[in-house]
Amino acid sequence: MTDTGNRLRKQLESTNFDPKQYVKQLSQQSDGDRDLQEHRQKIQTLADETAQNLKKNVYKNYRQFIETAKEISYLESEMYQLSHILTEQKSIMETITQALLSTDKDEAAKEMQAAFPKETEEVKQRTLTTLLEKVEGCKNIMETPGRYLVYNGDLFEYDVDNMSQIQKVHAFLMNDCLLIATWLPNRRGAVRYKYNALYDLDSFAIVNVKDNAPMKDMFKILMFPDSRIFQAENSKIKKEWLEILDETKKNKVVKERHKKEEEPPHSPVRQDMSNNPFDEDEEVVCEEIVDLSMEWIQELPEDLDVCIAQRDFEGAVDLLDKLNEFLKDQPLTQPVKGLKVKVEERVRQLTEVLVFELSPDRSLRGGPKATRRAVSQLIRLGQSTKACELFLKNRAAAVQTAIRQLRIEGATLLYIHKLCNIFFTSLLETAKEFEMDFAGNTGCYSAFVVWSRSAMKMFVDAFSKQVFDSKESLSTAAECVKVAKEHCKQLSEIGLDLTFTLQSLLVKDIKAALQSYKEIIIEATKHRNSEEMWRKMNLMTPEALGKLKEEMRNCGISSFDQYTGEDCWVNLSYTIVAFTKQMMAFLEEGLKLYFPELHMVLLESLREIILVAVQHVDYSLRCEQDSEKKAFICHNASFLYETCLPVMEKRFEEGVGKPAKQLQDLRNGSRLIRVNPESTMSVV
């Protein structure tokens, strides 16, 4: 660019450039129309140069734009993972904080107990008497000898069905019962409460209610078939209620057992009922009495509660199996019914805990083996269907999380290798674990097959998003599909074949990719045809000629040497050689993607591409007047029909397993008529 042009560019690029002022000065300084025309030409030249530079910069930075977009996508994935990690860290810190606070409170409570020893039983009885004087309608409660107060405090009662607050109550826990009293709205002297209910400690069970904001610090009292829910003032008071209630119930059981052991055995006295016509029936009734006084049976409900609290699921199920074995041949008497009611409530609690262990909300680390413990116990409880459903839901969430956390790499093929490795390894491990856990439940295998298909759809969604939606080249897509097929075949070692499922889910995207690449090849061929000069190729150097021969041998054309001449010349046109290489590359990639549903799509794509070259040769022969060029065109047509197309048909048949009938018909229907260089050739 000249100095004048540089000055003009700097002037126009300056920050304080004013177009109106510039035009005004230019009009004043110009001598006439010719100066304005010259200045206009300079500005136009500058504009053309700027546009050309802009195009070059866009082309130069095109790959950088793509890389930037991929980096942004990768950054988005990293931010998601970072957010997930921060959420986990926050949860861990909150747990540690609560644990430290709880430890401090427990130590403070121990110090208080050390400073103020426990009250004697007499003091507790006097305290109970004093407190009960404030409760209306419970004068006869103190008539039971040995009854004393253990713990008391205010609670809020909630409706079991809709969890709405009902009333404020005051609970009195005694060594053998629990008294619930309601607050009186209008106090009368020392009386503050009104009697509501009295429950024997053996008649109810205590259940901890999981906190679910805003419903916090709650526990449930189960009295078959009813239940009541109470809320403590805070978590510390709730914990005290649960611990003291549990300890008081255990103390009562131990006390009653010692009392029975101290009582002398009584020999049964049988009256003479020889004249009683119902004597035989009474003997039958006596024989049907079931002995439930054994220590392990008496402590069974409490032992189940302990096992559930300590997460000893195997121990809890072992106790249930032992009880079922004991009651298998026993009659269903009233005590047995009462015992079964208590046990069934524990079974329900145990089932809820096991279900929570398998829920996707729990940590998914550890792989399928981490679920084995909960699954096996649910199966032992006779809930194999629920165990199967929860196991598969847990694994689906684990696979989805693993795919979501997979780092999106810049290279698509590298990402697909990692994706296939994660997905198919997880699927294989899940199948092996499923076969181990549900070996005796063949009815669950159909559920696993259905789950496998849904998991494969999840995999294909992530696969297609990265391979096909990002408009990768056909060669890259073919390599990615090949990798997925190879991993899918690994599942055959466990008898699971999902190849057809994978193909059916990918057929739409692969068909679209073949169609798109076919259009690209047709457009490129037409563009080369428009610039065809029908001249021999001069590769200039022996190295370039050797490279072309190697490329043609890789394409399957072993007789290419007969089309080469002296001094690096090739007796073919550039258009025909480029078409051959591009066509054979398309065929190879198509065969990598091939499966039966794509047979006609691939054949029709090949046929349409070949027709473009055939029609161009036919048109050139009909329009060309020079006899030498006609002879050269005939030579190129001979290469196309007698060398290139047969190689293509043979390669297709090798890759597919059956002949390409449409390509054979296309070649046989095109007849070459060559008499001499001056004659014409027609392609029909």
Describe this structure in words.
- With about 675 residues, the chain is α+β, with helices and mostly antiparallel strands.
- Helix content is about 65%, strand content about 10%.
- It is built from 22 helices and ten strands.
- The protein has helices spanning about 5-15, 20-30, 35-60, 60-115, 120-130, 235-260, 280-285, 295-300, 300-310, 315-325, 335-355, 370-380, 385-405, 410-435, 445-465, 475-490, 500-530, 540-555, 575-595, 600-625, 625-655, 660-670, and strands spanning about 135, 150-160, 165-175, 175-190, 190-200, 205-210, 220-225, 225-230, 535-540, 570.
- The strands form two sheets. Strands 1-5-4-3-2-8-7-6 form an eight-stranded mixed sheet.
- The relative contact order is 0.03.
Radius of gyration: 45 Å
For the biggest β-sheet, the strand order reads: 1-5-4-3-2-8-7-6
Strand coverage percent? 5-15%
Secondary-structure-based class equals alpha+beta
Apparent shape: elongated
What is the CA–CA distance across the termini?
A: 56 Å
Discrete helix count? 22
What is the mean predicted local confidence, pLDDT? 79
Low-confidence stretches: 266-287, 671-684
Helix content bin: 55-70%
